[in-house]
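Methods, example record. To illustrate the input and output format used throughout this study, we show the complete record for YqaJ viral recombinase domain-containing protein. The sequence lines were provided to the predictor; the line carrying structure tokens was produced by it.
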Amino acid sequence: MTNPNARSAANSLRAQLAPAPSEPTTYAQQIADELIEYLNEWHSLPETWDNDLDARIHRWYADAPKVFPKKPYFSPSSANACPRELYHKAIGSPKDETRKPPYQGRWTRIGTAIGDMIQRDLLFMEKHFEKKTGRPCPFSFERNEDGTPVFEDFAKRNHKIEHAGKTFHLYGTCDGIMRYVTEDGEVLRVGLEIKSKQTSAARTSFYSLKKPDEKHVKQCVAYAEMYGVDLYVILYVNASKKAWEYEEGEFEKSPDIRAFGLEIGREEIDVLLDRFVEIQNSIDDGKPMAVDLNGWTFNGYKTAIAQSLTAAELEAIRDKVSRVKRSNVFDSTKRQYAGALEFIEKVRKGEAV
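The corresponding predicted structure is encoded as:
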């Protein structure tokens, strides 16, 4: 099904730009590479119009099911979140409500639009790829009983977990559960997680992006448990482009779309569930865990956290920030830590932030 020359060229390029892998390419990565090949071919064709399919997609969303969380619960998107943040979310602390710069609002909307675009493209490829190219597309979305694709509102669920003496739910939805048809005709269920990059065209180069973000991997581990899949693809789509026309060889070095295949086993799932159990224990016992400043930028409960810190916890944060400032970590990390401490100090002094 795949173009062997394209596959060979892609593997050759990776060998030149990245250190030699310690083991052969995984089967999941082969699927991820093939998804890139099919998307690249589809996006190189003249755009396909299908009003009936677009109308069907809009009708699906107009009548999407309403699924609400069953407490206690954790969301896959918070799999790597600060445990103190999850504590305050669980006990009902007020969430921060602050205005943000307009460019951040556009940033998040563009990220959502990229996910919508890829999902729509895959639906179109399922219907039109073979007519356009003469060969079938091996990727399609799994369907619910009512014919809706298993993604977004049509895949939202509460998945009950009983682990290490605790009971809670994993609540949320995925970007998609695909059906991948192998060359032998076997149908495999493969999860899809779509992420955007927007700061520069280099963010998805083979030099800059050598592996998926750990927080995205953990999110997929949670989805693997929720949807019963062990193969997952994280797809990064870069909204930033270097130019309308690239110099020869530039796109091969710095493509605007990358994919990483994951093979998720029981061990990875249990490690994540152990973390959720630890956090749930802290919630049940009323003993919040320490603040993780690494995720402070997107922490939605900064004010509640600042107000709840003990004197000893605050002193520990001051010491941590001081050590980070003297370390050789990225300047952006130093700024984040310093900014977090500044925010906390202002809140505790009663200053508006």
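Annotations derived from this record:
The first strand starts at residue 73 and ends at 74.
Strands lie at 73-74, 139-141, 157-163, 166-172, 177-181, 187-197, 231-238, 257-263.
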